[in-house]
Design brief:
about 220 residues, mainly alpha, about 50% helix
Length: about 220
C-alpha cells in the first residue's frame, strides 16, 4: 500500500480520507459480508445448474480464474463462470469484443445476462471486492491505460467492485479510448462516496440487468 501511495501524484489528502473512510468502514464491510452470504445461499442452486450446462457445452473447467488488481493495486484472483474456450489467451491478453469467436454458446448468454459474474460473490466474501466500486482490471490493462492517462492509477485508491458508476453508464468497449472514457466515473469515488450511493448503484444495476439497457 505504501509503495502504491508513494507513486500517486497530486492527490489531495481530503479526497484520500473520504475514500478510505467509506470503503474501509465497518458498515460497508458488514453490508458486503451480509449480502454476499445471502447471495451465495440464494444462488447456489442456480450456480449448480450453470456449472452443468457449461460442462455440457464445451470442454474445460467450470470456473475461470484471472489475476486482477485490487485496492492499492494488490493482486487477487477474480473468479467467474468460464465463458470462453480453453486457452483463449494462449497468445497473450486480448480484450473481448462483441463478436469474439473465443466465447462459447452458453458463454454469450451468461455474459449478456451477467450470470457469469455470480461467483464473484466469493471474492466479496473474501474481501477482495466490494459490491460497488471501480471494475477490477488486469495488470496488462492498467499499465496500457496508464500510458495514455497518468491519472489512471487514482482509481486504485478505491476497493474494486462488481458494479459501479462506469458499469452502469458504459458497456464494455474493447479500445483504449473508450476504456478511458470510463475513468471519470471511476474517479467519482474520490469525490465522496456514501452508503446512500452504495444502495443507489445496486438498485440501478438491478434495473440494467432486468431491462438489458444502461441508464
Amino acid at each position: 500500500m505504501s509503495e502504491f501511495l508513494n507513486n500517486i501524484n497530486n492527490i489531495e489528502s481530503v479526497a484520500f480520507d473520504k475514500i478510505r473512510g467509506v470503503h474501509n468502514s465497518y458498515l460497508l464491510k458488514f453490508f458486503d459480508l451480509f449480502f454476499s452470504i445471502v447471495g451465495i445461499c440464494l444462488t447456489l442452486p442456480l450456480m449448480f445448474i450453470i456449472a452443468i450446462v457449461i460442462k455440457l457445452d464445451s470442454k474445460g473447467p467450470v470456473f475461470f480464474f484471472q489475476e486482477r488488481l485490487g485496492q492499492y493495486k494488490k493482486p487477487f484472483n477474480l473468479i467467474k463462470f468460464r465463458t470462453m474456450v480453453v486457452d483463449a489467451e494462449k497468445n497473450g491478453p486480448v480484450w473481448a469484443n462483441e463478436n469474439d469467436e473465443r466465447v462459447t454458446k452458453i458463454g454469450r448468454f451468461l455474459r449478456k445476462t451477467r450470470l457469469d459474474e455470480i461467483p464473484q460473490l466469493f471474492n466479496i466474501l473474501k474481501g477482495d471486492l466490494s459490491f460497488v466500486g471501480p471494475r477490477p482490471v488486469t495488470r496488462y490493462s492498467a499499465e496500457l491505460l496508464k500510458q495514455h492517462n497518468h491519472e489512471y492509477d487514482m482509481r486504485f485508491l478505491a476497493k474494486p467492485g462488481v458494479t459501479g458508476w462506469s458499469q452502469i453508464y458504459w458497456s464494455h468497449k474493447p479500445s483504449v479510448e473508450k476504456q478511458l472514457k470510463k475513468l471519470p466515473y471511476d474517479l467519482l469515488y474520490l469525490n465522496g462516496f456514501s452508503i446512500k450511493d452504495y444502495f443507489k448503484i445496486l438498485l440501478l444495476t438491478i434495473k440494467v440487468i432486468l431491462t438489458g439497457k444502461g441508464v
